[in-house]
Specification:
Blueprint lengths: L2 E2 L15 E6 L2 E6 H4 L4 E4 L14 H9 L7 E2 L9 E3 L29 E4 L5 E6 L3 E7 L5 E6 L1 H5 L2 H13 L6 E5 L28 E3 L3 E3 L1 H11 L7 E3 L14 H4 L6 E6 L7
Length: 282
C-alpha cells in the first residue's frame, strides 16, 4: 500500500487541505485523505499514473492501480462514464461486466462493455472501485460502521443530476448505510477560480435549492463544484465535519494534474479508487 512521502514541500507538490496528504504509490505521487484511510484503502492519482494509451491495449497503469489497492486487474471496477447519476453495484457475482479477461475467442472485452454509470458502490473487499476525471470531481465515500464504499464521478452534469446525493442514497438502500456514518473525500478537480461557464448553465441547476451559492460572478459566472459537492453531501445527511475537500485545482497545477479545460483533447485522466477494507464485516 502507499506510504507517506517525506519532505514534499517543493513547488511541484502544492499543499492540499489539512486532512489530505501526499503518499508514494507504485507509479509515483498520489493523494490520500486520512479520515477515509482509517476506514478504507484508497488513493487519488496524479498524472504520473499513465493511462493515456488505448483502453483495450495499455493496461500497465491499471495494473499498478489495482496492485496498490491489493486486488487483481480483473477485480478493479472501471466504468463507462456518461455524466449522470446511474449506480453500478459491484460484487463477486458480477465481475464479468468490468473484467478485462479474454472471451472464448481470445478477444478482449471492449470499452463499451464496461458498466455505464458514474457511481460505483460495494461492500465486497475482493473488488476495488475506480472513476476517472480530468477536471470533474472525483468523490470517494466510506461507511465507518460497515464495509460499504463508493466512487463517484461528477462534472457539472453529474452535479446537476445530484450524483453525490445519489451515491449516499444508493449506499443506504443497498447496504443499510446511515448517512451520519459516511466519510467523504473530494479529490482534485477544477476550482471555481478557473471554471468559467456560460450564464445559461445555471438553468440546469434550478432543482437545487442551494445552487445560487455555487455560482460566483466576475465578468462571467464561475461554477464552484467543491461547494456544490459539499452542499449536496450535507443535504444527503453526511455531517459537515466528515466531508473533506482537497482544494487542489487541476487547471492550476499542470505538472501534477490533467485538465480538460486547459489541455483539451490531449488531456489524460486522473483516477480515484477505493476498496472496502479487508477484514471488515458489515
Amino acid at each position: 500500500m502507499p506510504i507517506i512521502l517525506v519532505g514534499m514541500t517543493q513547488p511541484a507538490f502544492p499543499k492540499p487541505s489539512g486532512e489530505f496528504e501526499w503518499v508514494q504509490a507504485p507509479w509515483g505521487a498520489a493523494l490520500r485523505c486520512r479520515p477515509v484511510a482509517d476506514i478504507a484503502p484508497h488513493c487519488f492519482s496524479t498524472r504520473e499514473l499513465r493511462l493515456e494509451g488505448s483502453r483495450d491495449e495499455d493496461e500497465g497503469g491499471w495494473k499498478d492501480l489495482a496492485g496498490a489497492l491489493g486486488v487483481g486487474l480483473d477485480a478493479l471496477v472501471r466504468l463507462r462514464q456518461v455524466h449522470g447519476a446511474e449506480v453500478f453495484a459491484a460484487g463477486k457475482g458480477n465481475r464479468d461486466p468490468f473484467s478485462r479477461a479474454a472471451d472464448e475467442n481470445g478477444s478482449r472485452f471492449p470499452f463499451h462493455d464496461w458498466p455505464e454509470a458514474d457511481i460505483a458502490i460495494t461492500d465486497d473487499p475482493s473488488v476495488a472501485l475506480s472513476v476517472r476525471a480530468a477536471d470533474c470531481v472525483p468523490i470517494l465515500l466510506a461507511d465507518r460502521r460497515s464495509a460499504a464504499v463508493a466512487a463517484v464521478h461528477a462534472g457539472w452534469k453529474g452535479t446537476a443530476a445530484g450524483a453525490a446525493m445519489a451515491a449516499v442514497g444508493a449506499l443506504a438502500s443497498r447496504f443499510g448505510t446511515r448517512p451520519a456514518d459516511v466519510v467523504a473525500a473530494v479529490g482534485p478537480s477544477i476550482g471555481a477560480c478557473c471554471y468559467e461557464v456560460g450564464a445559461e448553465l445555471a438553468g440546469h441547476f434550478s432543482a437545487h435549492p442551494d445552487a445560487s451559492r455555487w455560482f460566483s460572478h466576475h465578468a462571467r459566472p464561475h461554477l464552484d463544484l467543491w461547494r456544490a459537492t459539499r452542499d449536496q453531501l450535507e443535504r444527503a445527511g453526511v455531517p459537515a465535519a466528515q466531508i473533506h475537500v482537497s482544494a487542489l485545482c487541476t487547471f492550476d497545477h499542470p505538472a501534477l494534474f490533467h485538465s480538460y479545460r486547459r489541455d483539451g483533447t490531449l488531456a489524460g485522466r486522473l483516477v480515484a479508487a477505493i476498496r472496502s477494507a479487508p477484514g471488515r464485516t458489515p
